[in-house]
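In the laboratory, one determines a bound structure by crystallizing the protein with its ligand and collecting diffraction data. In a computational setting the workflow is compressed into a single prediction: the sequence and the ligand go in, and a structural description comes out. We illustrate the idea with 0RA.
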Amino acid sequence: MDKKQNNNYSADNIQALEGMEHVRMRPSMYIGDVGTRGLHHLLYEVVDNSIDESLAGHCDKIEVTINEDNSITTQDNGRGIPVDMHKKEGVSALEVVMTKIGAGGKFDKDSYKVSGGLHGVGVSCVNALSESLKATIHRDGKIWEQEYERGKPLYPVKEVGTTDITGTIVVFKPDPQIFKETLEFSYSTFANRMRELAYLNKGIRITLTDKRQKDDKGEFVSEEFYSKEGLKEFITFLDETKTPIIEKVIFIEGEKKDIPIEVAMIYNSSFNENIYSYVNNINTHEGGTHLSGFRRGLTNTLKKYADNSGMLDKLKIEIAGDDFREGLTAVISVKIAEPQFEGQTKTKLGNREVTSAVSQAVSEMLENYLEENPNDAKQIVQKVILAAQARHAARKAREMIQRKTVMSGGGLPGKLSDCSMQDPAMCEVFLVEGDSAGGTAKQGRDRNFQAILPLRGKILNVEKAMQYKVFENEEIRNIYTALGITVGTEEDEKALNLEKLRYHKIVIMCDADIDGSHISTLILTFFFRYMKELVEKGYIYIATPPLYLVKKGQKKRYAWNEAQRDEIMQEFGQGASIQRYKGLGEMNAEQLWDTTMNPEARTLRQVTINSNGEADRVFSMLMGEEVPPRRAFIEENAVYANIDA
Ligand code: 0RA
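The predicted complex, in structure-token form:
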């Protein structure tokens, strides 16, 4: 080794350390945030690398384990990260992969690609943000190992044994200095993502095991995710609780302009459009060029078919783009070498060339499908006609809301007790079940910034209602006007206008019993289907009133669950008494303020969408037409129902 190379090595090594330091200084730049999302992202970075191995044809098994101490172990049967001396860096390639922040994944074209694959920031980021990490490599008959603390190697890569398998094992423990909010991994969050990855990458077997939890048989909670048919099965899963109106899932697979494209779709009897789009396995929440391409291909092809079929001849109204997508569930997945992500959350695909590629692929294959399956084609066209008719009825109903909200400055619903402050960022509105609880809330609130909107009994189940019925419903109209939200623009009839949104906290406050949670679910279903943006922006909250009041003499304490209640009973000792709150109505104004409304003392649960597909499944199951899946869900989740016992 000559001197020059030596110098190079140390210089680059320093640079590498600086890169790792930068990740620790500004973690959000690399993983989005340092809350729950960022924490879970760590695993996704490692698994992405294993998936890349699989896409290259070298890996079909990934095992993920959440260990008792909240560390994670992943093992794949890929080629294993290379361990030989890296020509340029002068250390093992493994050390380079683990300690060098690769910009876009290409740091040395002639040598190994630093994975991070088609996207992502790479395993080195995970290493930088872990208090400890151990990499074990099985490759070329040998086992190699290196350990790190906060990204710094503890020793050079060493050989520790022989093997007849290949693959990479990574054990990492997130650094509490970085993830200050929480270090607790959520099994269900991981399960949703692993399931999604299995559907998006058919043939890979992904197991997830949680060593923190045991099932009824005393075994660790564990699931295997595997899909033989990929997106086709994804659609079946997503629409499990819906009624299909065509025979089977339509599946489109092909390559256009070097872009691999996969689309699966089905029509169901609901009124919702559910399209999930992915680029390189990333859910593109904000859509982009691939989604536009799909819509264009779908609309053009269906329109042409419908026109030629003669079924539209007697129809007096125009058909709009939206009408072709009512009751549609679809997944679009493309793989692109250099994706450009745009938009607020960087989940909108920008690559121009993709629109026409997807549009062409969809047009060609859908055209064939419709020709070969005339019955399905007829069902779809009929659904489109119904959608167009319903949309016209809905527009009329919606224009009523519009007129009320926009025209009259003092046009707020009579039932709303508004707050005196004007700044939406400071203001909250409580949606309260029933007039009597509404009255208590009105007395208990701080009228400066808290508004109260009482809702009458059970609000309309929007999952089962046609759109125009929803817009005709008085309680729902009150919600629109109270919030200051209007619907519809020139180009997008369903777009929400949030410019005049009057409150940044919208709090659902219902009784802590089964009826109350049913009403909360109805209201949430409405927000999810009709005002999803509010949920996505984090404006929707659920209030948590206490279940018990424990008293002894002058001493009073509230409890939100049985364990808390028992603890307080113990503390208070002999002579303590329990009052069980059956509803908000049983609390007086002061108690309601103290426990549920006072920002200093209350707990608000912010409503978030972990997985769009999962949320859609749950809402259509709980609120939709099919009864058996609902029963199964309620039985499985009966523990929650017990609070009412
Ligand atoms: C660099 C180069 C190659 C593979 C990997 C990294 C790799 C990284 C991870 C992380 C988890 N599992 C992984 N598997 C592989 C290419 C290997 C080759 O060319 O032999």
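The longest helix spans residues 374-407. Keep in mind that any predicted model is a hypothesis to be tested, not a measurement.
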